[in-house]
Design a protein that fits this description.
By secondary structure, this protein is of the alpha+beta class. It contains 26 helices and 33 strands. A hairpin with a 2-residue loop joins strand 7 and strand 8. The relative contact order is 0.06. The structure holds (3S)-3,7-diaminoheptanoic acid and zinc ion (ZN). The site of (3S)-3,7-diaminoheptanoic acid has 12 residues, from strand 20 and helix 2. GO terms for molecular function: alanyl aminopeptidase activity; metallopeptidase activity; zinc ion binding.
């Protein structure tokens, strides 16, 4: 397995100006005929090497002359032949087996339909080609089939012709926009079709077509509405219009990720298309809206302007995630949207930074590109774009975007080209800022304060620490905008003229700022203005002061997470030390914390302060383990989970009585996906959980759950009920789960929720349960959604089941991954993640996890995907 390096980039010697593909579709033997107009760019080049994997070559001809096998070189990764002139027509015929293709990359056949996935390097599993994003070509695609169920034959661009020759159905598509091979798509199968139109602001009519599993037309309406909103939003916000006559979305059950932005023909995981009140949760509705928008936004940020090479992936992904985040915040609640993004950063991206797969948002070295569709490239990439947006303001950012498109429409470019456009349009020096693209890791900003009583000022010193990561030892200080405010003792925000755009710029190892006044409480990193960790030794009274008085709801939430985290860490320290506890009072490294006292006071603030419902929801929920353990290098996962449960339960004891009252007061309305209702349902879920955890209200709350589960008209409430009894009453849980299965057992998408709930249940016999669930009629190792729902949920979220004392949970995952790797390496490579983090755990967990990685590493026939991760984890 070879490592590719970013700095080794070379321009292609040849381009392909036109690509004509003909597919004769048969499930087990599809014939692909490719006619390429090849243009030489580098006159010194005499040979072309085309990428190709798992192909059966039938014939090659150059300018109509067939080559004999000694006139080309063929190996497992490609085809090399002589082209010693400036322009030739190359004709290549290959055969592939879509039915046997369980990797779901390239052309595959499942559930009576053909479907493709080419990004990043899947096109080479369809035919020999220059499978790299800087080779843009005009595609014409002919699809031929004699299969009666293949009613729809789809590819990119516009349909030119649809006709019959004997019993062969033929469709011809032409895409006028030059594109790289990764944006190619083909779909053939029978679907129900949901249609609508969108009129662009310049008056062009675009046909919108959603291809859905038969009988599910109703469930496509939310996706269709979301698409129209996204199209309008991109015109209003960035002046960007759609550029073809038709926009197609196909939903399929077998898909490796969320969706794919193929030009004019998006392919979606049906989980991110199908929804109605009865079967989808508020979260599903939210995700559908955001992913539909994300893929649509790619039409400009990704397709019209694409990446020069795959190291530049964040050019399109970071930017498009930022755009979909802006869109979601405009469509729903800013606060909950932003908080969910920050959780992804803290719970997944910061974790990636501490493990063996650490990389900058623009990686330098890659073995398997599919391994780099990461939270770092996507979500941290979006945070880097967001910092630019903060620094340049919305107007400045728009100017930069306009210049970026003016300069690069139709090109394949780099992250540097993007930053250049931003810098030039705003006449700004972004030299230091650029380092975010090349440096990996999470900066730690330690903050200390020194009061000068005479001058009545406070000096804040920011010390930037950039811990070394698995991939980089040398680090330097980054350019970090920290949005901040300072509260005086009465809760008023003091004037701080040293702030630019409400931001403190930390750009050296030490930066100091002076603020008028003393006894100030700093509110730092409001809205998560940079992907960093702030280390300031907040006292509990300071945090409660922020929760009472900060001008920003986000800052209140952030402070509340610190209150809970402090309690969890204090309890954890007490549990793992042998010190005799005096009640809950204990001494950890930093402070003496009376956990019960803190929680009681915190509950008091929540009940008595005038806090809006949407903020309250956020303030009632505990941080995840990843957030709560911030600052602890290694943990005992079981003891930490116990500590967290203790804090959760204690909090419920302090606020639970109030919870039941709030719950009973809430009114039930017919389900609607609206900001108000989403918020109300979330609040009810929090109250329900707290009421069940509180001894006094527990029985009443459990009755309430059963009733709600039966009476509710929507999946959100029902799933919330199941989640609560999953923790607190396993008998009721089992009863409701069987009724769930009876009702929805026929529906694959809904049953993923059921598999996920079972996989995360605390049971001593969880591994035997997993075995049973794998034998369930709806489960198959070939379907990524199923594998993620069952095995993924177990490994990522079932702390007690996964981290078993003698390593049985780790071994279970190891065994499964070795089987899965043979079926679908991309999915296996995602689910191995929890095992890679062994350095973050105490013994014996660490060694037990590591031994599974060693076992995977030494097993025969390992995919490039798993090999890359396992080998990195062991060096
Ligand atoms: N661009 C695709 C992801 C492709 C993943 C390849 N392993 C979806 C997206 O980000 O929109
Ligand atoms: Zn994307």
């Amino acid at each position: 397995h070879i490592v590719k390096r970013r700095l080794d980039y070379e321009k292609p010697d040849f381009l392909i100006s036109e690509t004509a593909l003909t597919f004769d579709l048969f499930p087990e033997k599809t014939v692909v005929t490719s006619v390429l107009l090849v243009k030489r760019q580098n006159t010194k080049a005499s040979h072309i090497t085309l990428d190709g994997e798992e192909l059966c070559l039938v014939s090659v001809s150059v300018n109509d002359k067939a080559l004999s096998s000694d006139e080309y070189e063929l190996n497992a990764s490609g085809l090399k032949l002589c082209i010693d002139c400036d322009s030739v027509e190359l004709k290549i015929v290959t055969e592939i087996n879509p039915k046997q293709n369980t990797s779901l990359e390239g052309l595959y056949y499942t559930q009576d339909a053909y479907c493709t996935q080419c990004e990043a390097e899947g096109f080479r599993k369809i035919t020999y080609y220059l499978d790299r994003p800087d080779v843009l070509s005009i595609f014409t695609v002919t699809i031929r089939t004699t299969d009666a169920p293949n009613k729809y034959l789809l590819s990119n661009g516009n349909l030119v012709k649809r006709y019959k020759e004997g019993d062969t159905d033929i469709a011809v598509w032409h895409d006028p926009h030059p594109k790289p091979s990764y944006l190619f798509a083909l779909v053939a199968g029978d679907f129900d079709l949901l249609v609508d139109t969108f009129i662009t602001r310049s008056g062009r009519v675009v046909n919108l077509e959603l291809y859905l599993e038969k009988g599910r037309l109703q469930q496509g309406q939310h996706a269709l509405d979301s698409l129209k909103k996204a199209m309008k939003w991109d015109e209003d916000t960035y002046g960007l219009e759609y550029d073809l006559d038709v926009y197609m979305v196909v939903a399929v059950d077998f898909f490796n990720m969320g969706a794919m932005e193929n030009k004019g023909l998006n392919v979606f995981n049906s989980k991110f298309v199908l929804a109605d009140a009865k079967t989808a949760t508020d979260e599903d509705f939210f995700n559908i809206e955001s992913i539909i928008a994300h893929e649509y936004f790619h039409n400009w940020t990704g397709n019209r302007v694409t990446c020069r090479d795959w190291f530049q992936l964040s050019l399109k992904e970071g930017l498009t995630v930022f755009r979909d985040q802006q869109f979601s915040a405009d469509m729903s609640s800013y606060l909950s949207t932003r908080i969910s993004q920050v959780k992804v950063m803290r719970e997944h991206q910061f974790v990636e930074d501490t493990g063996p797969m650490s990389h900058p948002i623009r990686p330098d070295e890659v073995m398997e590109m599919n391994n780099f569709y990461t939270v770092t490239v996507y979500d941290k990439g979006a945070e880097v774009i967001r910092m630019l947006h903060t620094l340049l303001s919305a107007e400045g950012f728009r100017k930069g975007m306009d210049l970026y498109f003016a300069r690069h429409d139709g090109e394949a470019v780099t992250c540097d080209d993007f930053v250049d456009a931003m810098a030039t349009a705003n006449n700004m020096d972004l030299q230091h800022f650029r380092q975010w693209y090349s440096q990996s890791g999470t900066p730690l900003i330690a903050v200390s304060k020194k009061e000068n009583d005479l001058a009545a000022t406070t000096e804040f010193t920011f010390t930037q620490v950039n811990p070394k990561t698995a991939d980089q030892k040398e680090k330097s200080p980054l350019f970090v905008p920290i949005v901040a405010e300072f509260l005086d003792t009465s809760g008023k925000v003091v004037d701080a003229p040293s702030l630019t755009n409400s931001s403190i710029i930390v750009n050296e190892q030490h930066n100091s700022f002076s603020v008028e006044g003393t006894n100030l409480t700093p509110v730092l990193l409001d809205k998560f203005s940079a992907p960093v960790v702030i280390d300031y030794d907040y006292s509990i009274p300071e945090l409660l002061h922020i929760i009472r008085y900060a001008s920003s709801s986000y800052a209140k939430w952030d402070a509340s997470q610190r209150v809970f985290s402090a309690c969890i860490q204090a309890r954890y320290a007490m549990q793992i030390s042998n010190a005799t506890p005096r009640g809950d009072k204990l001494i950890n490294n930093r402070n003496t914390l009376d956990v019960q006292g803190v929680l009681s006071e915190y509950a008091n603030v929540l009940v008595n302060a005038d806090i809006e419902g949407d903020v309250l929801v956020e303030l009632l929920s505990l941080p995840s383990t990843e957030t709560a353990r911030t600052g602890l290098k290694t943990i005992d996962p079981i003891a930490f989970e116990d500590a967290s449960e203790y804090v959760q339960k204690s909090f419920a004891e302090h606020i639970g009585g109030h919870a039941l009252a709030c719950l009973s007061a809430s009114q039930v309305a017919t389900y609607q996906y609206s900001v108000e209702q989403v918020n109300q349902r979330a609040l009810n879920a929090s109250w329900l959980k707290l009421a069940v955890l509180n001894e006094d209200t527990r029985n009443a709350a459990l009755l309430e759950i059963e009733q709600r589960y039966i009476q509710s008209d929507n999946m959100t409430d029902r799933l919330n009920c199941l989640k609560v009894c999953q923790i607190e009453n396993i008998d009721l849980f089992d009863k409701l789960m069987s009724s769930f299965e009876q009702e929805f057992g026929h529906d694959a998408v809904i049953m993923d929720k059921w598999f996920g709930l079972h996989a995360t249940t605390k049971r001593v016999d969880i591994l035997a349960q997993l075995d049973l669930l794998r034998a369930h009629g709806q489960f198959t190792i070939n379907n990524p959604n199923k594998v993620r729902a069952l095995i993924g949920s177990f490994a990522f979220y079932n702390t007690l089941g996964f981290h078993q004392k003698h390593g049985a949970g780790y071994k279970y995952l190891g065994d499964y991954l070795l089987d899965l790797d043979k079926v679908n390496p991309q999915v296996a490579s995602r689910i191995v993640t929890p095992l890679l983090q062994f350095e973050s755990f105490n013994e014996p967990y660490k060694s037990l996890m590591k031994s599974q990685i060693e076992r995977i590493f030494t097993s025969k026939g390992l995919s490039r995907d798993l090999f890359e991760k396992a080998s990195k984890a062991l060096t």
